[in-house]
């Protein structure tokens, strides 16, 4: 029983499965496509919203250092992802990596975790996009009825038709092919980056040096609390994080980490990359570096334009320009945010479907979903299924209270990938590695410690919801996945038993 739970799928078998005609994805992506995907999904609500929140509540003008800290945590994980994605260029990202190193049950756990992370992230972003679009429509004099905006308090019924429509349209684009998705993403990312550069360049002319004083405001300890909304580390050890001061920077880093979520999704497209050994490391590390530079620059500019105590929490960039008498820039920023969120939503949905596809190809989920479209060579069945489900969820649910589950899911994946690098280095030192994580095991260990630190700073209720989802996953695995996986079928065939249908 124990050996069956930790049976591994060797790298050679993983690569061989990608060559089966019915289950093979088309290789069409370049390093530039991957970098664009990374930038497209990373730059989203984080840069347009979180800057004001953490500057006002946690770090002051030192919010730029918080972005650097969060970027370093992601960089440690990115180095581990780059090695795996170039060594095992198979759809599934952390799920596939853990299957090759830790075993089937750990792989299922991380795959189940990624399904939640990407699905929830897609729905959350779709709802956020809907809010920006409704704001733009209101400015133009067009108003959606409340029951079509998901917020009709009078009748108790509300369906966010814009959020649901966005998910369905993006589902259709992903079914039609990765190259089309890459072209649309490139266009939208170009618009989004231009808007961010406008903020940086235009805002630089309105910086007031006095707004940076003090750069690191005096520390203000957070009162101790015993409810589930308190950080887990506070409930476990009685340690209360601080607002402002040096510790406030680290507290802020655990919040702005949400702004970096996405570079790991680049790894889910490894199987559809023309030269993954060369291009995956470039796409992962390149997109992370570009976004970190942009984040730091934006945070420096916006805290220089307006005193951190006066920054808006809802729309800090747009409102900072309004505060200095330039509403036109505020409109451009709102437009850029709305446009930019479309790529975030699409690439999160892309990552979701690739993980689901990889799990079904391995038999842990029904094999029906592992067949690709005969013409477009995309996993159309899981894409359509998940697209419809997420559209319904986004239409009926605001999901604001569940957004932190995306953070904990991503950090959990970081931990698993870092551990997997160490294990695979020891168990398969013979594997050709186009990119090697430097200073192993130091870098992976630092990645694990940094990720766990940020996880402990998340609310205890987030851990509770995460645990409930994992328990559901264990039931699904033991009732279906354990006996239907391809490794289990091969073991039974080797033992002369009839395969289970």
UniProtKB/TrEMBL annotation:
It holds the Pfam family AA_permease_2. It is found in: Membrane. Keywords: Membrane, Transmembrane, Transmembrane helix, Transport. Coiled coil: none annotated. The chain crosses the membrane at residues 31-50, 62-84, 105-133, 153-175, 187-207, 244-263, 284-308, 328-351, 383-402, 408-425, 437-456, 462-480. It is a multi-pass membrane protein. Its main location: membrane. Gene3D superfamilies: Amino acid/polyamine transporter I. This is Amino acid permease. It comes from Streptomyces camelliae.
